[in-house]
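Exercise 3.2. Students should predict the tertiary structure of the chain below and write it as structure tokens, then compare their answer with the key that follows.

Predict this chain's 3D structure.
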Amino acid sequence: MDGVQGAGCGVRRNDGSPLHVVVAITGASGIAYGVRLLEALKEAGAGTSLVLSEDGEKVLKLETDWTPAGVRKLSTRNYSNNNMAAPIASGSRPFDAMVVCPCSMSTAAKIAAGISDNLITRAASVALKERRRLVIVPRETPMSAIHLRNLATLAEAGAVILPAAPAFYGRPGKLGDLVDFIVGRVLDSLGIENKIYRRWAE
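Answer key:
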């Protein structure tokens, strides 16, 4: 993430090209986090590669009024989770960071075990092996010892574990405020300046 300039007129690398973030949306509850993240990255001027899993599409329809096609329009480009020939599946094709938001416990387990059976898990493996920023946003409660061990393994491998656990010190007035808190923290983890949530003591 070195050499990334803050937001304002858009997040860019020092060479002037836009920051590029892979966004993976899995079948965990909390799809609104992933959709809002895509909106925020677009507003910041970052490029995005979206991978929306089949289970993610199902949860999207259950939890929101968004359609898969509408969500895909928020991204710069998008790929099927079955497309193992996509550019983001190779370490030779650079991207700056990857966020799995929300991340199911099944996906977290596969990434932690090094299982690359779809594009999401493969791209995450690439992020880890190439030492690129990988942010995991797990949405599960309660968590078993197995879940915790898998997340610890990912943290030890270099991933940022950012649970979908919004704070209340900003006195949220609506559901969107809670979503923005988590998305703002994800942007912070990517080094992207933002003002979409109220910070401590503001």
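Discussion points: The radius of gyration is 16 Å. The mean pLDDT is 93.
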